[in-house]
Amino acid sequence: MTGRHEPATAHLRIRLRAINRALRAAVARQEARSAQLSRPDLAAYCVTADHVDVLLTQVEATAEGLPGAAVPEGAPATRTERAAEQGLRRLVASTGVTLPFDELAGRYRIDRAEQDAILLVAAPDIDRSYERVYAYLADDLNRRRPSIDLLMTVLGGTPAAAVAVRRMLGAAGRLRRCGLVRVDGDTLGLAPGLLELLLGAGGEAALIGGDPGEVDPPIALTPALPTGELARLADAMNSGRIDLLGLWQGTYPAQRDTALALAAHAGRPLRRLVPGPDDHGGGPASPGSGDAMGAWTGDAGDPATRPDGSAAFTTAVATAAAMNALLWIPMDDLLRDTAAEHGIAALLCRSRVPAILSGTTAWRPATVLSRRAYTERELNPPGAEDRRRSWTTALPDGDPKLIDDLSGRYRLTSDELGAVVAVARAEACFAGNGLPAPLADHLRPAAQVIARATTSGYARALRPRRTSEDLVLPPEQSRTLLEIVGAFRAWPRIADDWGFRRRTGDAGMKVLFTGEPGTGKTLSAEVVAGMLGLDLLIVDLSRIVSKWVGETEKNLEAVFGQAEEGHAVLFFDEADSLFGKRGDVKHGTDRYANLEVGYLLQRLESSSAMVILASNLRENIDAAFTRRFQFVVSFPRPGLEERRRLWRLAFPPEAPLADDVDLDALARLDMTGAAIVSAARDAALITASSETSETSETAETAETITMRAVVAGVVHQYQREARLLRPGELGAYASLVTVAGDGRRR
Prior knowledge:
The chain is α/β, with parallel strands linked by helices.
């Protein structure tokens, strides 16, 4: 605490010296004005002819001085004070401490005049003596607290500077927009915690206040409209030909990025409308706070409590007008509240501030459009070139090949892209132990972390751990899986650069895996997801399907949305239970079952995610799905060579496998990959649980997995499959089959 407290108070002492000089100057000006009055002692009770003459002279001087400088300069510091400040900054820089005013200036971009205003508001709480000085300047002993008039008197030495101070302290000024200075009646106060921060008593500048209407640009903008279209719209809004623009569809980040890019083309700031308590009600509301809709509890039919009279909405529009800003109104949340919707409509009808509406669903009230110059645009997902440009902006020194790979593999929003870069930099710093480390080595893992899907009640997110080395397939199927991966990566370039998106829309890859149980369909889906660096989202059919009409479709919509937002590969195992053939309507439930399949047809085609369906029988899948699959892979039962590789992979390197285990003999058995893995696991369990001595009081486990234990595991697997293992199938090891069978029966 001492390390932060002492520099803060030392800096406060330096800054207060300039404030004290400004107060002395203001007192001198007040004395000079009083001296012009013949009877200053009567000024509080009556106005004489001499008083009127003096007052008229003052107002004439004020009128003449108004066209002067529009920005207050604050209390000037002497050369000694500036040197003391710089010396103090150098002193604390080595300790990692930031001076409170410097922290405020960096966080809220406030200049020296605004810092002086904060000091004047804080001064009476530091020393009560300031109160009587303020009362003298106000010419009223009852007005001892700081006010806008007082700050105009102290910081505004000229009429023009006084007007600039009032503008600085207005509702659109940064101090009040950020909640650093608050108005209570005719007095000013500081945000809670700000005085403690200035005194070095702890706290963090970012937690003191905040401007909810300010839109911070992401690390790399990804607008959903072409640059030329943005420039034309910006020119139309600046000229007044258009004063209301609708940006519909797309994600929230895409809407925000497009609005930011449009404001940049127009050369204006962008303000977001955030409903909540206004400046008089305790400061601006933070985005997403519980007070966001607190202003809409009144009766919409009562003129005294109409939502269009909300101070929060009115202040937001007035602030945008004062700043010559474009007002951005995200409508998705507001449309959930009828009163808020009416309030927005009423304000847009009265105001002429250029505004941008956005949302996933278009909002077109006739009362608004009839009074505004309106146009709208639909936001399309960013194309391959747009994504490459965003990655290049975020990584100006990045490898072009790496950027092409990442932009083609991940469809990230600008927020997610910024998170990827931040995580990669943190990992690189950690890996280098504080020293610079190659960022490229950490970009792919960081992208996987950010793009990772979350587990929900309807699907389980699996992080792929098995690779192509764990997959044993015939050459044709292996090549097809590689083609699937390559096609998924190449699709953005084909869709955008080659123009196929106009023909096929934004649909992602759709794949069908068919084959007997245990032939590697689920493992192949995991391997494909791993090669793409994505999670595998496995649908839980028991939770998806509902007996209630419409619930199944709603659950499926949630799963598809989860896969698209989480950049995951969506996997339906036993897909024929959902994607089965439609039948004749003989019962009432048949109609709704057919509706579910019809919904799936539409949703499968429109989804931008990669979707993999697995089914034991291709014939069970409705024929209408066939044309929607870009790839259909049939998984046969493994042949002799595949089974030999599967047996080798079934036993981990750490497993104590005995020398007498004959994998060639085991490979002659007609078993699937899943059956082989199950038999190997059974053999390990039999070995670990068997007693080497029936007379020992403490059971001792065998040291190695022998051929006898493996054959016993195979027998167990055959019995689970209701198959009979003939001793002759194992040749020289036929006797082990008999022994294992007898042991199983006992």
